[in-house]
Amino acid sequence: MTSGARPAPERSVRPMLPSDLPVVLRIAGASLPNPWSERIWRDELDSPFGLYLLLEEGSEAAGFIGVKHIADETHVMTVAIIPGMRGRGHARALVVAALEAPASRKSRRVHLEVRPSNMAARTLYASLGFAETGLRPKYYGDEDAVLMTLELPEPSLGGPSGRPSPSPLALAPRPAPYLAPPPEILGRLEGLEEVEGRREASQEADEEPAGDKRVDGTTDHVDQKLHQQHQRDKRKQ
């Protein structure tokens, strides 16, 4: 290494806070064709079913991920990396962090939608173990959505979880003022347990809808609930 070389900025992941919304809205506006409104974001951050994480490179926010949990399934609701900071493994780091968080550890299956034309994202998800399991016609209005699913084996005590292998991430401190314990990401001492507690305390047994049909012809009630919630969120915009 030459004397003038600079070390790569440290990458960290932490829970998203309402005070992060200005930068989150800026990233979403620069990255997504139909970004959520501030109202939707505030509703999502208040939801006991949601988990939203922000990735920072050095002191700059680079991207975010949001997932929802229902029963033993997780649905990736949104992922975005600011254009100038793509190609550095940030999206992979966010997906892994979300799946390794305590609120996701009971999940046996993870779903997400992706545009058929987004080959970079499809390749990334396939490399993490997601398989293409269905198609949602006109999901994006102008384009169908490919449904991708990751089956997660039940973690064995003291053994590997079977989840995508994480890369070491530095832990960002919670922005002040915040007096709760520091966050735990990727299996270390975390502050995401409160999300798990709120989710379990508020989860109610709803009447199950008819359910979507997967490619194997079986009915999936949980996936239908998540899809309906996502459609309601999009109509709020």
Would you summarize the structure shown here?
With 237 residues, this protein is of the alpha+beta class. Helices cover 28% and strands 24% of the residues.
Structure description:
The structure is a single chain. With about 240 residues, this protein is an alpha+beta fold. It has a single domain, classed as Aminopeptidase (3-Layer(aba) Sandwich), CATH 3.40.630. Helix content is about 30%, strand content about 25%. It has an 8-stranded mixed sheet, sandwiched between helices. It has a two-stranded antiparallel sheet with strand order 9-10. The longest helix is centred in the C-terminal third of the chain and has 16 residues. It starts with 10 loop residues before the first strand and ends with a helix. About 25% of the residues have low confidence.
Determine the CATH superfamily. Answer: Gcn5-related N-acetyltransferase (GNAT)
Averaged pLDDT: 74
Count of DSSP E strands? 10
Gross geometry = globular
Radius of gyration: 18 Å
**Could you name the ranges where pLDDT drops below 50 across 5 or more consecutive residues?**
156-160, 166-225
Order of helices and strands: EHHEEEHEHEEEHEEH
SSE order and pairing:
Blueprint (H helix, E strand, L loop, with lengths): L10 E5 L5 H11 L6 H9 L3 E8 L2 E11 L2 E9 L8 H11 L8 E6 L4 H9 L3 E6 L8 E7 L18 E2 L21 H10 L9 E2 L5 E2 H16 L1
Parallel strand pairs: 1-8, 4-5
Antiparallel strand pairs: 1-2, 2-3, 3-4, 5-7, 6-7, 9-10
